[in-house]
């Protein structure tokens, strides 16, 4: 039963990801690694190839997942204690995982150094400040989805302003709630 649910979720996410990729220009998907790492999930939560890599050697459940199902899988993949919430340690694991999977350009195939402890602390503080909407010190799945939607809406608004002839500035950070 659990395998069927995973297969269903992966399939739905993959289909929606393919649909979104055909609707948006390629540059819309490019986010500097440092910025993406600061926003837990980022494009990696939508990247079916990235998630498939973690399922290598297993049945390929991502073949028929929607983007929402892939996001759920991505969240659960980092929820190490399976309590339905991501704490600071799990967020650090997700950031370092993202860092290892997405080397910054200009490093000639070598991994750039991992963020320092101070940088990781600042990233976690930023994530919790921006995405922990109920202030409990954790990111639950609902908060994760809401934060992803806020970022997607900001990216769309930024793209629209760029298409309308606006100056090239990064999108503003998500609002504090």
Word description of this protein:
The structure is a single chain. By secondary structure, the protein is mainly α. It contains seven helices and two strands; from the N terminus they run H-H-H-H-E-H-H-E-H. A two-stranded antiparallel ribbon has the order 1-2. InterPro entries: EF-hand-dom_pair, EF_Hand_1_Ca_BS, EF_hand_dom, MCFD2-like. This is EF-hand domain-containing protein.
Globally, the shape reads globular
Oligomer state equals single chain
Mean pLDDT: 74
- The CATH topology is given as Recoverin, domain 1
| Strand arrangement across the biggest beta sheet | 1-2
CATH superfamily membership: EF-hand
Q: In the CATH classification, which architecture applies? A: Orthogonal Bundle
Q: Fraction of residues in helices? A: 55-70%
Task: Supply Rg.
Answer: 16 Å
How many strands appear in the DSSP assignment?
Answer: 2
Strand composition percent? under 5%
Order of helices and strands: HHHHEHHEH
Keywords: Calcium, Repeat, Signal
Organism: Pristionchus fissidentatus
InterPro entries: EF-hand-dom_pair (IPR011992), EF_Hand_1_Ca_BS (IPR018247), EF_hand_dom (IPR002048), MCFD2-like (IPR052110)
Region (Disordered): 20-46, 151-177
Write a brief structural summary.
The protein is an all-alpha fold.
Core attributes:
signal; MCFD2-like; two-stranded antiparallel ribbon; EF_hand_dom; EF-hand domain-containing protein; EF_Hand_1_Ca_BS; single chain; mainly alpha; 177 residues; Recoverin, domain 1
SSE arrangement:
Elements: H1 2-23, H2 33-38, H3 48-54, H4 67-78, E1 85-86, H5 88-101, H6 117-131, E2 139-140, H7 141-163
Antiparallel strand pairs: 1-2
Helix pairs in contact: 1-4
């Amino acid at each position: 039963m659990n395998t069927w649910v995973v297969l269903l979720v992966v399939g739905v996410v993959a289909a929606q990801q393919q649909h979104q990729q055909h609707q948006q220009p390629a540059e819309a998907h490019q986010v500097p690694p440092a910025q993406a790492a600061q926003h837990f999930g980022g494009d990696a939560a939508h990247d079916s190839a990235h998630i498939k890599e973690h399922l290598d050697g297993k049945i390929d459940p991502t073949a028929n997942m929607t983007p929402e199902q892939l996001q759920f899988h991505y969240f659960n993949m980092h929820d190490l204690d399976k309590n339905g919430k991501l704490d600071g340690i799990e967020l650090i694991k997700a950031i370092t995982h993202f860092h290892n999977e997405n080397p910054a350009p200009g490093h000639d195939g070598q991994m750039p150094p991992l963020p320092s402890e101070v940088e990781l602390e600042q990233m976690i503080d930023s994530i919790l400040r921006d995405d922990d909407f109920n202030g409990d010190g954790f990111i639950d799945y609902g908060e994760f989805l809401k934060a992803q939607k806020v970022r997607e809406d900001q990216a769309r608004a930024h793209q629209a302003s760029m298409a309308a002839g606006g100056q090239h500035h990064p999108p503003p950070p998500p609002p504090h709630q």
